[in-house]
Design a protein that fits this description.
alpha/beta; 274 residues; nine-stranded mixed sheet; UDP-N-acetylmuramoyl-L-alanine:D-glutamate ligase; 26% helix
Length: 274
């Protein structure tokens, strides 16, 4: 029987300048993870996200809710990655969250794995309580909180901010995955959260750190990619998360799952977007 994955969050159109690549295409953690999961025939992935007609060209093969576009323009991200550092601009950031109608709640209720992957902090605790209230008790719940750490200025510039509803949302998840670059005090936050969930914090070429009840374990990358060999780093963290989630769901071994995430991220760095 297929395992059902539901990703709630945002989809976007990416305009990327990254190491050896320059392109415009689909983007977002939800899309990168859905593309990764699509290589496994035993997984069925649904995305619940707001989208516009300008995203239609990227919807082939996707199980996307709502079924018809619900906003005039899709969110757009401009990502510029140079020397391992990324700057971002976000446009159409004020689009409404997808409605949690009967169709969405049915999709959520049938999930074996639930992933929250926002690109902005629009999913507040009241909205999330309604969404998560429909999940089965045994559903694996994973949070990628990067969007909660982002403030969007009027010119589109993305800057760091506090995660306002942090604990109220985080403590509802089994695993939280984020990057040390997502927040200026990421290590302190990882330790705080580790007392009510399992935290995995990615460390770039050094691999990733597992934090549980204040205890830290670094899982190193076996063969780090030299900076001059990186083709495209955009989506690397999302690919890491997808591989970790798939492995953890089947094996329930967080150390092994992080190893699988490291290897998938390494391959992503060497891959050209088609």
């Amino acid at each position: 029987m297929d395992k059902k994955i539901t990703i709630l969050g945002h989809v976007c159109i990416d305009r990327n300048v990254s190491e050896s690549s320059r392109y415009e295409s689909w983007g977002s953690a939800a899309m990168y993870m859905a593309r990764y999961f699509s290589s496994d025939d035993s997984l069925q992935t649904n995305i619940i996200a707001s989208w516009g007609d300008d995203f239609t060209q990227y919807t082939d093969g996707l199980d996307l809710y709502p079924l018809l576009s619900n906003v005039s323009k899709t969110m757009v991200y401009e990502n510029t990655s140079v020397g391992g550092k990324r700057t971002q601009k976000c446009y159409n950031a004020d689009i409404p969250n997808p409605e949690l109608d009967d169709d969405a709640l049915t999709v959520l209720g049938s999930s074996d794995i639930f992933i929250l992957a926002p690109l902005t902090p629009s999913f507040d605790s009241a909205y999330m309580n309604r969404a998560m209230g429909s999940l089965d008790q045994d559903c694996l719940k994973v949070l990628l909180p990067q969007g909660y750490f982002r403030a969007i200025r009027s010119d589109g510039t993305v800057t760091p901010q506090e995660f306002a509803d942090g604990r109220a949302i985080v403590e509802q998840f089994d695993i939280v995955i984020f990057s040390e670059d997502d927040y200026p005090h990421a290590m302190d936050l990882a330790e705080e959260w580790s007392y009510y969930t399992t935290v995995v914090m990615t460390l770039g070429p050094e691999g990733a750190m597992i934090v549980q009840a204040g205890e830290r374990e670094v899982v190193a990358v076996e063969e780090p990619v030299p900076p001059d060999k990186i083709v495209d780093s955009v989506g690397c963290g999302d690919t890491f998360s997808a591989a970790l989630i798939r492995s953890y769901y089947t094996e329930r071994d967080i150390h092994y799952a992080v190893m699988m995430g490291n290897e998938a991220a390494r391959r992503k760095l060497l891959t050209t977007r088609e």
